[in-house]
Amino acid sequence: MTSATNMYALTLEQTVNLIVTTGHLTTHLAQGRMGNAKSAMLKMVGARLPKHKLVYFDATTKSLGDLALPSFAAAETDGYVKMVTHEELGLHLDGPVAVMIDEYGKAQGEVKNALTLFMNERKMGGRELHPDSIIFATTNLGGEGLGDTMKAHHRNRITVIKMKGVSAVEYIEWGVNNDVDPAMLGWVRDNPHCCDSFEDVPNPEDNQLIFHPKAIARTAFWTPRSGEKFSHILKQRHLLDDVTVTAAGIGTVGERAALEIMAYVTMTDQLPTRQSIMDDPANAKIPTSAAAMCMVIYRTLGSVERDWIDAWMIYMQRLSAEAQGMFANGVRSKTYNPKRQSMVMTNAAFTKWAQTNHHMFSADV
Question: Distance between CA atoms of 57 and 280, rounded to whole angstroms?
């Protein structure tokens, strides 16, 4: 990709905003790295457009015959064949829809040809979408070597946007709100290069955590997606032995990432329990390392409830000033869970602490 394309690559939020704002006028194709939340955009679009029905179209599983089939019953009554379209196109639905054509670049050539009218004119098989409907597509970067291709006449009919990968900060903010294991979040904080792009790493040995097309033998690697998958396994580690969990990690996020994350798991298991903080906040164990302290903060942000905020505030003030500021700025973040944000920010103990320690708040949250 050209330097200008890279310079003007959009974040996930910017891409969704573009789709929501102009997606009824043109079809956007979001091109980005594997495992970096492209498929999550449909849910994000739906949150912005609650009146739209969401439709997911998996382009990799379709052949030409899947898009529309003739209705022979109509031929007998009307004297000509009518086409019945696939439900994943949403043409049978009333009202506006938001259609995501996932993995467009990997679709068969005949499928891309058949989708051209739908993506540009919003119609197929004698049916037409509501005028407020939105169609957008996703695909991987060509440089990843996954078979994502487009012919010039297909590309010229749509708007292709390069998406930035998810940053470590964005992943942690998302992970706090989506119950990602604190060990995973702590590791990502200390290893932000896990979110680097292969495009910025000429030598694959310089970053052994990520996917790289030149590292042929690296069959597993860390991405935001595989990190979440391993987090699910980590949360069941009380039912498994360490060898099993590590083996599962190697097969999910790769050798280097799995071994490093398991070191954080050991640290996490030595943290004060949530119950000990609730029961005796003045005496519950205080982590000795900065990494462990961060994991306590992430765990609390992702699980705090109204009935133990007061206890947490007593405990938190025994932590370092940096850790206290991290919690406060996490609560004030625009991406933080609104319900928990309201619970904490209306708590009398937090309000009193904030008035005394307002200097700990970052200017940009």
Answer: 52
Token readout for 64 is 């030409």
Burial degree of 140 (CB within 10 A; 0-12, 13-18, 19+)? buried
Site of tokens 């099993």:
244
State the Cα–Cα distance between residues 335 and 176, nearest whole angstrom.
10
Residue 71, Cβ density class (10 Å: 0-12 exposed, 13-18 middle, ≥19 buried) = middle
pTM here? 0.83
In tens, the pLDDT along 152-210 reads: 888 899 999 999 999 999 999 999 999 999 999 999 999 999 999 999 999 999 999 99
Which residues make up the CATH 3.40.50.300 domain(s) of the chain?
3-162
Closest by CA position to 19, among listed 87, 93, 99: 99
- DSSP per-residue codes, 270-281: TSPPHHHHHH-T
Q: Which CATH class is domain 3-162?
A: alpha beta
